[in-house]
Specification:
By secondary structure, the chain is an alpha/beta fold. Helix content is 29%, strand content 28%. Helix 7 runs antiparallel to helix 8 (253-265). The structure holds 3-phenylpyruvic acid.
Length: 310
C-alpha cells in the first residue's frame, strides 16, 4: 500500500494538491512540517511518495524543493498537480486590522500578497513560517506572539477557527502552483503523449556558450523547454547547475537523443523522471522530430554502415 506524505499541516495548498491525486484517496497520508522532512522520510522508506510544491506561476521555482530533490539519494518525479491559489488574511476572533503589526505566512504566500499588504497594511512586518497552514494553526493555538494574522488558504482559516478579515488578497488573480509527487526510483510512468521530463544538468566548467551547448540539445531535437532555472551547486561561488523541465517522455526518440546529447556535453545529468502533464496538453512535435523520423534516420545510417539485415 502506498503511504503518502505532504508538506503539512492540514490546510496547506500541498494537501489540496494531494487531494487532487486520485490514487492517494483513502491511503495513509502523513503531514510533514517541511519539504526537507517529507523528502527525508521518502528517502528513508517511511513513506512511498511525497507531494511537494515546485513552481508557482507568479513567484517561480520553490528553491527548497528544487534543491532537496536533486541533492542526496536519487528520487524521481512520478506526477504533477496544478492547484489554483487564493489567500485570506486570518486572525484570532476579536483581532482587528489595527491590531495587526506582523503577518505570518510561507515565503511563497508573502511573495503573492506583498502588493496588497503594502497598500492595506503598510506597517505590518512579515514573519516567515514553514507553511501557510502552520501560520494559521500556530496563531489559532495561541502558540505565537510574533504575528497577529496569518496569510493562508480559506480552508486553513476555517479549519482552525480563525476569522477572515479579508479574502482574495493575492496580487495576481488566477495564480497557480505546481506540485510534484516524488517517489524512490522504480517503475517509470508510461508515456501518454502529453508528458514532461525533469532533469538537473551540471556543466563541466564555466565557459562562453556553455548554456547554449545545453540548450541546443533540446532545440536540435524540436523539444520545448517549459522551465529552466539555475541553482547554485553550493560548492563554490559562481558554480551553478540547471534544473530543466521539458516536453516529452524519456521513451520518446527525440528525448532519448537529447538526453544522450546532454550526457556528452555535461559533467552530470540527473534524470528526475518522465510523467504525465497535469494539463493533459499534447506535445506539438515537428515532423522532423517524431519517433518515425528518428527510426527512419537510424535505418538510413545502418544501411550506410552495411548493418541492416532486412
Ligand atoms: O504553505 C502552503 O500551504 C504550501 O503548500 C506551500 C505554498 C505556499 C504558498 C503558495 C503555494 C504553496
Amino acid at each position: 500500500m502506498t503511504r503518502y506524505g505532504f508538506l503539512g499541516p492540514v490546510g496547506t495548498f500541498t494537501q489540496a494538491a494531494l487531494a487532487g491525486w486520485p490514487a492517494a484517496k483513502g491511503r495513509e497520508q502523513t503531514a510533514f512540517s517541511s519539504v526537507d522532512k517529507a523528502l527525508a522520510a521518502l528517502r528513508e522508506g517511511e513513506i512511498d511518495a511525497a507531494m511537494v510544491p515546485i513552481e508557482n506561476s507568479v513567484e517561480g521555482g520553490v528553491s527548497a524543493t528544487l534543491d532537496a530533490l536533486h541533492t542526496g539519494d536519487p528520487l524521481t518525479v512520478v506526477g504533477e498537480v496544478l492547484v489554483p491559489i487564493t489567500f485570506v488574511l486570518a486572525v484570532r476572533p476579536g483581532t482587528t486590522r489595527d491590531d495587526v503589526r506582523a503577518v505570518g505566512t510561507h515565503p511563497h504566500g508573502w511573495a503573492q500578497v506583498r502588493g496588497w499588504m503594502g497598500s492595506e497594511l503598510p506597517d505590518a512586518v512579515y514573519v516567515p513560517t514553514l507553511s501557510t497552514a502552520a501560520a494559521a494553526a500556530d496563531l489559532a493555538a495561541g502558540l505565537v506572539d510574533s504575528y497577529q494574522a496569518a496569510v493562508c488558504a480559506p480552508v486553513a482559516a476555517q479549519g482552525t477557527g480563525l476569522q477572515v478579515l479579508a479574502s482574495d488578497i493575492e496580487d495576481r488573480s488566477g495564480a497557480v502552483t505546481r506540485f510534484v509527487l516524488a517517489a524512490r526510483p522504480g517503475e517509470l510512468p508510461e508515456p501518454t503523449g502529453a508528458d514532461k521530463t525533469t532533469v538537473v544538468v551540471y556543466q563541466y566548467d564555466d565557459h562562453a556558450g556553455g548554456l547554449l551547448e545545453l540548450l541546443e540539445q533540446f532545440a536540435a531535437r524540436g523539444i520545448n523547454i517549459s522551465r529552466l532555472e539555475s541553482r547554485p551547486t553550493g560548492d563554490v561561488m559562481g558554480r551553478y547547475c540547471f534544473s530543466i523541465d521539458f516536453e516529452g517522455h524519456v521513451r520518446d526518440a527525440r528525448v532519448g537523443e537529447a538526453l544522450t546529447g546532454l550526457r556528452r556535453v555535461a559533467a552530470d545529468v540527473r534524470f528526475l523522471g518522465s510523467y504525465p502533464r497535469a494539463d493533459g496538453q499534447q506535445a506539438s512535435i515537428q515532423l522532423t522530430a517524431t519517433d518515425d523520423a528518428f527510426a527512419d534516420a537510424d535505418r538510413w545510417l545502418a544501411d550506410l554502415r552495411g548493418e541492416r539485415t532486412h
